[in-house]
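Shipment paperwork, digital attachment
Item: protein structure file
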Amino acid sequence: MNVHMPAGLIDNLTTQAVDLTTLFKTGVTLAILVFVAIYVFKGGFSLAKLAMGALVGGLLMWLVVGNGITTVQQQVGNDLAAAVPVSVSRHV
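Attachment content:
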């Protein structure tokens, strides 16, 4: 078994950051699942509440855990960079 031991401060901080990212994503996933469960429970287990809770939960999962925020930010940045400035000239 080959185990990599962090050699220095940077390696140690990188390992800790990866571990914290995993912990954060797990916590967000758990919070979203609890939110959807409470939302559906308070709605009387109706199909509409279940569908809405699943939709909102799925969107939040994509935005936070699936890096959807970064994807949207990059797409908007690319669209703005590709935009051609409009010049208005006045013809008399």
